[in-house]
Amino acid sequence: MTGQNSTEIWYEQKKLKTGYTTGSCAAAATKAALEMLLSGNEIQNISLLTPNQTELYLEVKDISIARDWVSCCIQKDSGDDPDVTNGICVYARVEKQSGTEIIIDGGIGVGRVTRKGLEQSIGQAAINKVPREMIIKEVKEQCAKYGYHQGLSIVVSVPEGVELAKKTFNPRLGIEGGISILGTTGIVQPMSEKALTDTIFLEMKMLKENGFDWCYAVPGNYGIDFLNDSLGFDADIAVKYSNYVGDVIDDAVNLGMKGLLFVGHIGKLIKVAAGVMNTHSRQADCRMEVLSAHAALCGADRAVIHELMNCITTTEAIDILKRENLLETVMESVMKRVEFYLQNRAGEELKIGAILFSKEEGVLGETTQVSELLKHIQDQKRQGYKLE
User: Fold this and answer.
1) 246 near 345, Cβ under 8 Å?
2) Strands 112-113 and 175-176, how do they pair?
3) 3-state secondary structure of 215
4) Which of 72, 79, 114, 231 has its CA 20 to 30 A from that of 365?
5) What is the per-residue pLDDT across 250-274, written as a single tens digit (0 to 9) for each?
6) How many helices (H) and strands (E) does the chain have?
7) Can you say how many angstroms the Cα of residue 214 is from the centroid of all Cα atoms in its chain?
8) What confidence tens digit (pLDDT) does each residue in 7-52 have?
9) pTM of the model
10) Where does residue 40 fall: left (phi above 0), alpha (psi -120 to 50 degrees), or beta otherwise?
11) Percent helix, strand and coil across the chain, each rounded to 5?
12) How far is 152 from 233, CA to CA, in rounded Å?
């Protein structure tokens, strides 16, 4: 990114540049293609307001114009993030259709969902919820601007995506044929590990300095949304730890925090039951091993264990455990091990616990100190503490 697009983070006298997501590229390419289609004028640059209210000014490339359709692309810039998609071109082809429906689909290089448990249904293009919302927003604004009221077909494609997908975990997640169009904020933050762990420490330090000795720890936006929407708790008192379970516990101990409550999706946090303290898939993926071992402990037969070991997503595994009437007992067993490893890392001075959830089932399991932790965390608000 250049000019007004540049955002830099200082770390150890180095500037780390942010980037923008494939979702932002898809939305900007759609906006540009549609504006050219409806106005009849070729454009070279396009602006895009991302979900986190960052204004991007992007160059429009590889423009093709016909009577009823326009195609163009935006080149992705990942900033200083070590991302395999850096520099790829994300295309949008926008075509007029009869009727009034707006159809969004994926073309070459955009994966197809073949397993349940992901944001999109089986058979749909792997274009996640927020990028779809970004595309629809831009389409509606352009249609209103030019008084267009008929249907549109929008096809997002990434010519390099077929090969790039082989370097990602998409095939293991049941996404075939290409990459996913991703992003929740529209902006890519630099993923320097040290910069990330320093940021986690600073977030917790800020809470501590504002009187919050007890807090939540969530991996990311899913955890925040679950805290707010499903549990009804205040996500302002939460530290995002990404994958660094061990680091955030160490930070809490070093800062003299009194309590830490993890709230995380089963797909990540279940790894703690095997003693894994960095839950990134590059570090460890023991989800099915954990579920299979605990299912065996709870009486599952060899055929069920074999089924579980062949699952790709935790959603599939949960369905099997439900079918066998084992979900509750297996999660009770899992949570005992989660608690064991969390307490082992935290030591005696820090109260610690965890809530595991899934989007489909809600809360799946809790450790023994959850109620006490929740009470202390919420009491801080009633005592008048607030974030400055």
Assistant:
1) yes
2) antiparallel
3) strand
4) 114
5) 999 999 999 999 999 999 999 999 9
6) 13, 20
7) 25
8) 554 444 456 688 899 999 999 999 999 999 999 999 999 999 999 8
9) 0.62
10) left
11) 40, 25, 35
12) 40
The torsion defined by the Cα of 105, 111, 117 and 121, in degrees rounded to 10, comes to 20
β-sheet bridge partners, residue 306: none
Q: What is the pLDDT of residues 164-190, one digit of tens each?
A: 998 876 876 678 999 999 988 888 876
User: For the residues of 219-264, what is the DSSP string, one character each?
Assistant: SSHHHHHIIIIII---GGGEEE-TT-HHHHHHHHHHTT-SEEEEEE
Q: CA 47, CA 55: separation in Å to the nearest integer?
A: 7
From start to end of the chain, where are the E strands? Answer: 8-11, 14-17, 19-20, 45-49, 55-59, 61-65, 69-75, 89-97, 102-106, 109-110, 112-113, 151-157, 175-176, 178-179, 187-188, 214-218, 238-240, 259-265, 351-358, 362-366
- Kindly provide the residue ranges of all beta strands, DSSP E only, lying in 114-184, ordered along the sequence: 151-157, 175-176, 178-179
172: Cα separation from own chain's centroid: 17
CB-based contact 298:330 (threshold 8 Å)? yes
Residue 328 is inside which H or E element, if any?
Answer: helix 327-346
